[in-house]
Amino acid sequence: MSVLTVGTVAFDDIETPFGRVEKVIGGACTYISWAASYFVNDIRLTSIIGSDFPKEEIIALEKRGVKMDGLKIIEDGLTFFWAGKYHDNMNKRDTLVTDLNVLDDFDPELPDSYKDSKYIMLGNLTPDIQIRVIEQLTNPKLIVLDTMNFWMDIAMDRLKLAISQIDVLTINDEEARQLSGEYSLVKASEKIIAMGPKYLIIKKGEHGALLMSKDKMFYVPALPLSEVKDPTGAGDSFAGGLIGYLAKTDDISFENIKRAVVYGSTMASFCVEEFSLGKLKKLNPQIIEDRIKRFVEITSFSL
Amino acid sequence: MSVLTVGTVAFDDIETPFGRVEKVIGGACTYISWAASYFVNDIRLTSIIGSDFPKEEIIALEKRGVKMDGLKIIEDGLTFFWAGKYHDNMNKRDTLVTDLNVLDDFDPELPDSYKDSKYIMLGNLTPDIQIRVIEQLTNPKLIVLDTMNFWMDIAMDRLKLAISQIDVLTINDEEARQLSGEYSLVKASEKIIAMGPKYLIIKKGEHGALLMSKDKMFYVPALPLSEVKDPTGAGDSFAGGLIGYLAKTDDISFENIKRAVVYGSTMASFCVEEFSLGKLKKLNPQIIEDRIKRFVEITSFSL
User: Fold this and answer.
1) Domain at B83, CATH number
2) Is this prediction's ipTM beyond 0.85?
3) A187, B228: Cβ pair inside 8 Å?
4) Cβ <8 Å between B219 and A298
5) Residue A273: closest C-alpha in chain B
6) pTM for this one?
7) Domain presence at residue A303
8) Which domain holds residue A144?
C-alpha cells in the first residue's frame, strides 16, 4: 500500500560524545522515508528544500521507491538547518541553531497523485501544516502523527485539533505527561486516547516504546547496543519502520501494530549506530530480520 | 530451599507527591523478606534493631515463615531511621535524614542454623558486612548482592572484593555505568561480569529491568501502573521476589533467572502502589499469578 510522508528534509550539524559532523543529511521526512523504504516501494515524500540540497540524495531516495512529486525545491533558497549537541548521557540534547530557511514558507499542497495515499506519516511540524495535509486526503486508512513539546507550549489548541483527526499519536513520555497533565502513563494514555487517536505510542528512547489502546498495552524495549553514536533521527526511523511495516502488511489490528512497533524499534536501533543516515542507507531485509530475532530473544520468557 | 536475607530493618519518613507518612516500617531486609515470603517459608532474616521496633511487626514476619535467630535486638537502642522526599517525577529522591543508630554496630554473626543457607540475598549495606556474611556461609547455591553508588564513591575496592565472590549483582543503570566506567549497558555489563558475577541485573525503575549474562540478555518492562504512590522498597521487593522464586524452584539456569526477574518485577509493581509495606502485606498467590499474566500480555508478540 502507499505511504505518504510529510516532514522536514534538512542539513544537520551534530555533536555527540562520539564525534562531530557538519552539514550532514537530516530531517524527519528523510529518516522516515529511508526507514519505510525497506518495507514498501510506493512512498510519497512531501517536503521543501533549497537548491543547495544535493541532487544525489534525492536520486538515492528515488531509487528506493520514494516519489518526489511533493518535494518543492526553492531556487536560491536554503534548506532547513539544525545544529544540536547531545549531553554525555545522550538522553538530552541542546539545540544550538534552528534556521528555518525555506521551511518558513512550507505550505504542503499535495499533488493529485498523493491524495489517495493510504498510510500517512506526519512528521513533527507545526500542527497547522499537519492539519492542512489531513484535509487534502481523500481516503486514508491510517494517519500517524508525530509532534513535540514545542507545539504543546505554543500551539496546544491547534495541536489538539490535529490530534483529534488522527489514528496514532507518537510522542515521548514527558510529552505524554505534558499533553495530558497526568504523571502516570496509564492515566496519560487514557486522556490522550479520549482526544481522538485510537492508539498512542510513547517513545522512551533507550528504554523502549509503549503502545497503548483503550484497553490494551504492549511494551517493547530498545535493544541494548554496544555503540550508540548519534540518536538523531531515531524517533523518525521508528516512525518509518512503523508506517512501512503497516503499509506492507495492510493490517491495523492491535496485534499487527504491536509487530509494527517492533519493526519501528528495530529501525531506530540501526539509526543510532552511526551518524546521520550512515547505517540506514546500507541495510537489507536479512539484516533487518536478524535484528528482529534479537528483539524476540531478549523479550521472550516462558512460565 | 532456604533463603538468607541480610540488610536493614528500619523506620522511614517518606514524602512523595501523593502523601507523607512518618515512622513507617522500612528497610531492605524487611521488604526482601516480605516479598520472598510469598514463595518460600524458610527465610532467615539477619539484621539489627533497637527495642523501639514494634514487636507485632516481628510476629507478622514470623507468621510468614521468617526466622528471627539472626535478628539482634539492642536493649534501649534506636532502630535505623531514614527520611526521604521524592521529586515530582519520583525517579529521584533526596535523603533528608539518615540516623544509623544501632546499625552503626552491626556485625552480622550468623547463627549456626543459618550457615547452610542456599539462596542468599545481601541487601544494600557496607561491602565489609556483605563480605563478612559470605565468609560464614558453608554451602551457598546462589549469592545475590545489591549495592548502591554510595559504596562506589567511598569503598570501591571493598565493593569489588565483595562482587568477586557473588553470582548475581543487582544495581541501577547509573550505578552500572559508574562501576564499569562504560556508558553502553552492553559494554558495562561485559566489564562487570568480568569482575566475578555470572549475572548482572540492571534495575531501571519505571523502565524495567535488564538481565545480562556473558552471552545472553533479557529485558522485562516495569508494568505501567495507574497509581504509583511510593517507590520506596521497590528494588528490595524486586530482590525478594527474585530470590524467593529462585529458592522455590531451585533452578539457576538463565531461563529460570528470566522467570525470577519477572516475579521480582511483579513484586516491585505491588510495592509501589501503596506506602511502606501496605500492599506487600496483603497479597496472595492468586493476586501474584494474575499480575504475572499481565506481564506476559504486555510483552508478548508473534511475528
Assistant:
1) 3.40.1190.20
2) yes
3) no
4) yes
5) B184
6) 0.94
7) no
8) 3-298
